[in-house]
Amino acid sequence: MENSIRHPIRIILTGPESTGKTMLCNQLTAWYKGESIPEYAREYVLSLNHRYTYDDVVHIAKKQLEFMKKYTSHNCNYLFVDTYLIITKVWLMRVFQKVPEWIDREISRTKDALYLLCKPDIPWEPDGVRENGGVMRTVLFNEYRRELQQAGLKYAYVEGSGLERVNCAINRIQTYF
What we know:
- By secondary structure, the chain is an alpha/beta fold.
- Helices cover about 50% and strands about 15% of the residues.
- The protein has a five-stranded parallel sheet with strand order 2-3-1-4-5, sandwiched between helices.
């Protein structure tokens, strides 16, 4: 009997700040009885005693990649990822105008995943890490969509609030898988 590694279905949440990615990730993980990779950037940036630098953001990207690789052959049916390299790439371009070349290569390795692009249609809630409220949410949403399209990745919009948003995400997942 051949021993094969079963890969989970990967669902990656992306979108502007304060669009419910973390909450949605947790809700979908519970609904599908899957596993999740939490957002690392928030925890890391909150722990800094200085304004984040280019090297900090690259460190965040490497850590996200490390978490993703850890789960590549994990024995679960669904893996939900709260934020991944698309957001980091746009963040690097906006703030530092440069991106390590390996990021695009790693993004291309997620062609089997479904990206759920969260619309900025729920209120922005400021906190100690968020810095892009107002019209920037729409600007960033459009940049994430453009990156997903340019990379040829599967994506679907998630919209609405509360249970409507969760049901929208479940519907999108069922449509693709």
